[in-house]
Structures are given as structure tokens and as C-alpha cells.
Amino acid sequence: MSIDLEEPTATASEAPTTLVVTKKPFKMPRLGWIFGTIWLVTLSFCALFAGQLPFIREYSAKVKVNGRAKSYGWGPGWNAWFGTDKSSFDVFARCIYGARVTLLVGVGATALGLFLGGILGILGGYYRGRIDRVTSIFVDCLLALPPLLLALLLIYRLDDLEIQIWFWKVTRPWEITITLGILAIAPLARIVRAQTISLREREFVLAARSLGAKNGRIIFREVLPNVVPTMLTVAFTGLGILIAAEGALAFLGLGVESPQTWGKMINAGRDDLAKAWWATLFPCLFLLLSVVSFNLIGDQMARRFDIREAAI
Amino acid sequence: MAGTGKAHLRDSPDVLLRVDDLVVEFPVGRTGLKVHAVSGISLDVLRGETLGLVGESGCGKSTTGRAIMQLPRPTSGSVLFENKQLTEMSGDTMREARTRMQMIFQDPISSLNPRRKVRDIVLEPLSIWKRGSKKEQGERVDTLLEEVGIDPARAAESQPHQFSGGQCQRISIARSLVLDPTLIICDEPVSALDVSVQAQVLNLLEDLKAKHGLTLIFIAHDLAVVKNISDRIAVMYLGKICEVAPSDLLYAHPAHHYTSVLVDSIPVPDPEIAATKTAIEGEPPSPVLPPPGCRFNPRCPAAQDICRSEEPQIREIEPEHFVACHFPTFTPVSISV
């Protein structure tokens, strides 16, 4: 019996054939990380070109009511999309400008954490023995200290030191970046170390050694490519936490001085929450969306790399 | 020492590898105890020969193989390979000498880096040693991949997980051949593969052995697999050698009680034949505290007092058939010292 596949209805009337249709289960497209990417790309773009974009007010432009600056003069509306704050600045423009510092601090701290944590983790995990002992103790010390206390101490200390290297003066944003970067070392180093330990026992590392590869080559060619996906996944998830931490520091008055950040805006507006909710809520929203976006992208990366891991 | 002695070592100019009193011990945490993985075994392999190394799981077969490669270095003993003492080498000389012997591992997928292209994996040894131009390297890799039956074009764009277990093992074999080694240590190369693929990989190994003039050390826990491929078989038990013989002799009349149980346990594909009666009892003792005397004595059907106190020495029981047992299963044809 032959079934004409192109015209199933014509044959169906003549000979009742039971066609088993395997029903594909409806698969929800993963919108989360797409949203996260769009949000972060748009935000970064706006923050970068805030001076050039026509719909973003200048950083120091005041939105006046009847020619006079008035605190919380405008609510969210056409004049000022997110309303105006206590000093009658445009909340929307300040949210965009705030993203500059917030994102830079977050990305910089993560990069620093990745670099230092990665080095510590790989060295400890690969060489074991005494090197592992020393790096592990260092990481454990970082974990044992309360992060907020460590951050406060570090920032105050760096404030006092006033380090200047060549033309590079360590200002507040740098201090926060360094502090948060140091806080990011411990979790990354732990995960990288664990991964490296499991990898170094794998036969392909033994094979590389029997082929005459030196330690450096094994680390860069065999171990590192297998550790980087995990590192990136953890880093992206951690980035959200670091951005929130920057907000927390600003909230405690340890923020960046000159440009506005989200944390500082939340701190400044919170007393008048009942009077002008927009001055606090919108920076909160920006913070929330950015943290969620980084987390969603981190999750997606974990899934993406996991497919290949599952085949091993 | 049980199962020690060197009566089975040959004095031939053709000896490619000679292992003397190899000992490998691992510390057990910080207890001060040691796992006696390999306790003084001696072996030799002639050029072009295949030595089968059999024994149950945990008897130190793989450790022996790795200790020969000096990965990790043995606790004591000497490994003489191509008339060079490997245990005394260090650094770059060691790295160089190691390339003359290669290893094929049990888990085909784990022995390939999951995040690299298969062709790059096979090319890696040449790139480490910077042998030949880029073009020559590529040609060598492609011919080897074709020899083991992997399409080079596919290998150039695929990662290990896109190949089956058997194919991955073929890729491992290709990689081990790239540097033109003389000795290949096959560490249970087929035990992770299913039976039809096992036969293919074994045949491939035989073909390549003839073509490249290789010498093989074939480690396995399955006597049936080793039987066809090996010229000589060494049976290990708990870090010691019990019996060494050419494979025909070993299967025809095993002299050690352990070997005879192993040979009897090879499944016979005939339902008419009754199951073997001589089942071995108990578990192998812990290699942390091995029993005194002959290490097989707690499970041996023929064990007597002397077996519990004195270690048997390896002796020749018939020409080319060596056994370390006080009471072998048959009487020696001629007692030679």
C-alpha cells in the first residue's frame, strides 16, 4: 500500500490509514535572555550617547515650573518622563547618566574578579599542594569577612591613601570598582578551582602530558577552554549582584561623588517617597531590570554551555 | 615478597622495555597508611611483541601502565626503555623520551578535550614539538585519520561529542600515532565499547601494529579480549604478577589457581555446557593491608600454611611458562632454577 504524501486527504477517503502524528510539545521560547540583552544594549547605547540623543536632557539641565525651579515640580508626564527630583533635575536623564557609572563599575569589578579569581582558582586547582593551600586560605579569608564591612574598610582606606599611579588617580569610582572586584574574587576562585581539579584528572590532560605538553600549554589549551564557560556564566550572574552592591554602597553614602548613580538617587529620594514616589521608584526599576537582565543572560549561558557538557 | 622474582625476564637484545621491581604506592589521606597499588613487579617486552596485562579491577594494571609512562612517577623501581633509564630522567629529556611511547585510555570520550576540534586534537602533538611545516603537519594528520577510518574533513569541523565512542577511540589511536612512537600502552581500550565495535577497534590496532611496527602493552580485565591480540600474557593480582606465559599456553593449562579461575570464567556461548563450578570466593583483599605470604592465599583453594607466611617466587614450570605459586595446578615438566 502506498500513501501519497502530497495529497493525504484524497487517499484518506479511499483507504482509512491511521497516520500517527507525533505531536511536538509546545516549546516556550526563552524570551528572558532576549529581553535582557535588548534592555542592556539599549541602556548602554543611551548611556554612551546621552549627550547626543535629543530625547535625553542634559545632565545639569533643570526642568522649571513657570520659570522657577521647584523641588518635585513635575510628576511623570510629557515634560519630564519620569518626573523631576528634589533639585528639579530630570529623573529620566539622571537614570540614563547613572547607568554610565553603575555599568562601568559593575563590568570593571567583574572583570577584575574574573581575572584574579580565575588565576587563583586555576593555579590552586592545577598545581594543588602548597600553592593550593595558600590560595585556598586567601579565598577562605575573603569569604570569612563580612562583605559589607570589608567594602567599607577598603573604601575608607583607599580614600586615605590617595593613590596616584602615573596619570591615573584612584578616584571614588575606581575605589568602588576595586573593592567590588576583590569581593568578587572568592566565589569565582572557588568555582574555577573545583572545575580545574575535576579537569586535571581527566584523561585528555594526562594524554596531553604524555604527548610532552608543558604545564603552561596544558593550562591554556586543555584546562582554560573548559573553565571559561563556567567562569562567564558565574560572572554574569554575579554582575547583577555587584550592581546591586554598588547601589547598596551608594545608599550608605559611599557612592560616587560627582555623577549621579542609581543607588544615590534612591538614597536621596527615599525620604520623600510619599510625596514624590517617582524620584525613587524609577532608579529602583532601572536597577532591578539591569540585575534581572544580567541574571537571565547568565542563566542562558549556563544552559547554552550545558548542552555540550551533557554530551561528555 | 609474593609473586616477585625475575625468572621470566629475557636476556635478549630485542628487549624494548624492561621494568624492574616497579613499586607504586599512594598515601591514604594523612593516616600514614599507603595503598600498595603495584608492589614490585618486573616485566619485559620485546620489540614487535604484544604483552597482555590482565587482572581484576583494582589490581594495579592501569597504575603499572601509567608508572611506565612516569605519570605519576613510580615510588621505586627502574623502567628501561630503548636502553634509557626513564626513572632517572627529568624535565625536558623526560618529555622527549615520553613521546616515544604513547597511551590509549579506557574512556574514549574523556580522553579527548571536549572543546576542541578533533583534527586540532590530533594535530596537537606535532604543534607541541613543532615538527615539520604547517602543510606537512596537516598532511600527516589527514593520512592518519584516514588510516583509522575517520573522515578528515569531518574531523576538522567537529568536536569529540559529535562522534561515537568507537570513533573517539579511533581518534585517540590516531593521536597516539602522530609522533611515531615505538610502544603503545593500551589501557583497557575496548572495555567501554560494545562488542561489535570492540572487534573493529581490536582489528584496527592489529593492522596498525603491523603497519607502523609497534609494540603494544595491552591492559584489560577481559581474558577473551586479550587472548587473540597478545603474544605473551602477564596475570596480575593485587599489585603482583602471578603468571607469565605465551597466550596459547596460558589458556591451555593455567598454572596459577587464580589464572585457572579467570580462564574458567570466560563465558562459553553454549547453553548445553554447565556453568563453571570453580567460582572464586570473596573479594580481593584491601591493597592498603595486603595479606602476608602469597597475596592470593585468602581466596586460594590450594592454600596451605606456607602460602600464608612465605611469598612464592616466579619460576619456570614449563618452557616459557612462568608462575609464582607454591602449589601450581600441575607439576612442573622440568624444574629449572
Outline of the structure:
The complex is a heterodimer of chains A (312) and B (337). Chain A has 312 residues and is mainly α. Chain A has helices at residues 8-14, 31-48, 91-127, 129-144, 147-161, 172-200, 203-210, 215-251, 262-269, 278-310; strands at 164-165, 168-169.
Give an account of the 3D structure.
The complex is a heterodimer of chains A (312) and B (337). Chain A has 312 residues and is an all-alpha fold. Chain A has a single domain, classed as MetI-like (MetI-like fold), CATH 1.10.3720. In chain A, strands 1-2 form a two-stranded antiparallel sheet. The longest helix of chain A is centred in the middle third of the chain and has 37 residues. Chain A is globular. The mean pLDDT of chain B is 86. Chain B is 31% helix and 22% strand. Chain B is globular, with a radius of gyration of 21 Å. Chain B has a domain of 223 residues: P-loop containing nucleotide triphosphate hydrolases (Rossmann fold, 3-Layer(aba) Sandwich). Chain B has an 8-stranded mixed sheet, sandwiched between helices. Chain B has a 4-stranded antiparallel sheet with strand order 2-1-4-5, covered by helices on one side. Chain B is built from 11 helices and 12 strands. By secondary structure, chain B is α/β, with parallel strands linked by helices. Classes of the chains: A mainly alpha (312), B alpha/beta (337). The interface between A and B is medium-sized, with 21 and 30 residues.
